[in-house]
Amino acid sequence: MASKEEIEKFMMADFPQSKCIVEAVGEQSATVRHRIGFDELRPGGTVSGPVLMTVADCALYVAILGEIGIVSLAVTTSLTINFMRKPSSTKDIIGKCTLLKIGKSLIVGEVSLYSEGDAKAVAHVVGTYSIPKSD
Amino acid sequence: MASKEEIEKFMMADFPQSKCIVEAVGEQSATVRHRIGFDELRPGGTVSGPVLMTVADCALYVAILGEIGIVSLAVTTSLTINFMRKPSSTKDIIGKCTLLKIGKSLIVGEVSLYSEGDAKAVAHVVGTYSIPKSD
Amino acid sequence: MASKEEIEKFMMADFPQSKCIVEAVGEQSATVRHRIGFDELRPGGTVSGPVLMTVADCALYVAILGEIGIVSLAVTTSLTINFMRKPSSTKDIIGKCTLLKIGKSLIVGEVSLYSEGDAKAVAHVVGTYSIPKSD
Amino acid sequence: MASKEEIEKFMMADFPQSKCIVEAVGEQSATVRHRIGFDELRPGGTVSGPVLMTVADCALYVAILGEIGIVSLAVTTSLTINFMRKPSSTKDIIGKCTLLKIGKSLIVGEVSLYSEGDAKAVAHVVGTYSIPKSD
To answer: Thioesterase domain: from which residue to which, for each copy (chains A, B, C, D) (predicted)?
Structure first.
């Protein structure tokens, strides 16, 4: 297992490009935040789909690190996203992940994505990570 | 229908943040390119998953614009990506989209993503776009 | 909206082949049950994948009928299933659906599938139904 | 690798419930057929979604057996289906699978499903199988 502080330190060192902020982690779940600005928007004043996928992927990764410890080479093997509502162009995106299965080689989780403060999710993601074998 | 030049002009005007380059469009398909640099990489020297999703989403969008004309408010409703091989950290990502169904309200397409010059796809995407009703 | 009794009656009349039993419906959710016998099993003493998909599809359909009333021509447009644990060969499969988005033309829901009495889901489904326009 | 005859024999012995007929297998692909009768239909005179999923799952499994030999405990880990056109109620369903990735532990393939004789697919599937470790 890894704590919020360990994960933040690891993310800053190994994923300096990431704009995801770890809000909470533990008990097979995680919450992350992504600020929304010009780079994240698209026509019609909404958050771009790839930004939502980025937040979901990050939430899933953080939940996994929280559960199995710092494993930098865990990789996403599949991800399905359903876009459900138009995100706000002025609110942060919040991603809340719950792990559904923690296997030896595959971990499955789901993520609900929200415009901060809204009760209804803007998108829903199910994703699978593959965990490299330890020697 | 929209030509390569019309789509490029539209993308530059409406999606100035996009790094996707339109390579070809027509006959219910499209090819796009995305340069790979520091911002696109992650630990282990590979291209990040969200960048691959971005390229897939762009390829799908360009193929749709090529088929039905410039419709800025078309939105992705769902997208499934399977990551299959480690992309090269030094080659552009190429996305090749083929539309599978062109309905009045939903368009479905698949995208194969490649590290330029490699014959085997690094990822495969199936996505659906919703087309706004014209009045 | 349709009640449990109305849905059961409709299912028996219009889907006489279905083996799904409606257990509960309402508040944008539904629970269904499917008995498991020889026809539903596969090598290794487990429930076949298509049976799990059948139960998920049925749970989603029942939840939708409960929400919008009897609409026989609603059709599944996409469905993603993740198989997570080996189902029991001797227990009924229970499908619990929660609707995530109820739009005018698309409804999205998720379904967790269980071997009866087990707390951990054997599979997880996200699916989308298209609702025909009423005239 | 396994031949068409070996796979047919295995399917008959281990999956006696299956109605899938192996039409062709080899070169990382497979074609299967499923007869359509009363049991496979639903209101509106079309083939039920779960039947289409069954055919896709079978096509994927046959392609995998053709590639890696008879491995009865290979299991589906995930499957995404997009329904695109209304299948004919009077024609067999044909499933054509192409494997996209053959890894040591995961195999990814796609399947196009057709009403026999129609050029346009009624549904498209991407699925992943997990291959048990050999000792």
So the answer is: 44-120
D102 Cα distance to chain centroid: 16
For domain A4-130, which CATH number applies: 3.30.2110.10, 1.10.730.10, 3.10.129.10, 3.40.50.300?
Answer: 3.10.129.10
Question: How far is C85 from A128, CA to CA, in rounded Å?
Answer: 14
For residue A102, the chain C residue with the least C-alpha distance is C84
Name every chain A residue with its beta carbon within 8 A of the beta carbon of C128: 82
Burial of D48 from C-beta contacts in 10 A (0-12 / 13-18 / 19+):
buried
Phi, psi of B57 (to 5 degrees): -60, -40
pTM, two decimal places: 0.94
Are the Cβ atoms of D85 and B100 closer than 8 angstroms?
A: no
CB B18 within 8 A of CB B85: no
Residues of D in contact with A105 (CB under 8 A): 105
pLDDT tens digits in sequence order for chain A, 135 residues long: 899 999 999 998 888 878 899 999 999 999 999 999 888 887 778 898 889 999 999 999 999 999 999 987 788 999 999 999 999 999 999 999 999 999 989 999 999 999 999 999 999 999 999 997 754
Q: How confident is the model at residue B44 (pLDDT cuts 50, 70, 90)?
A: confident
C126–A82 C-beta distance less than 8 A: yes
pLDDT value at residue B88: 95
Instruction: Spell out which residues of chain C touch residue D39, defining contact as CB-CB under 8 Å.
Output: 17
Cβ separation D106–A77 shorter than 8 A: yes
Question: C9 to chain B, minimum CA–CA distance in Å?
Answer: 32
Give how far the C-alpha of residue D31 lies from the chain's centroid of Cα atoms, to the nearest Å: 8
pLDDT at residue D112 in the model: 98
b/e map C55-94, b = 16+ CB within 10 Å: bbbbbbbbbbbbbbeebeebbbbbbbbbbbbebbbebbbb
CB under 8 Å, gap of 24 or more: what pairs does C40-46 form? C40/C93, C41/C89, C41/D17, C42/D14, C42/D15, C42/D17, C43/D14, C43/D15, C43/D72, C43/D73, C44/C86, C44/D72, C44/D73, C45/C89, C46/C86, C46/C87, C46/C89
ipTM value, please give it. 0.92
- The beta-carbon neighbor of D78 closest among C14, C54, C82 is C82
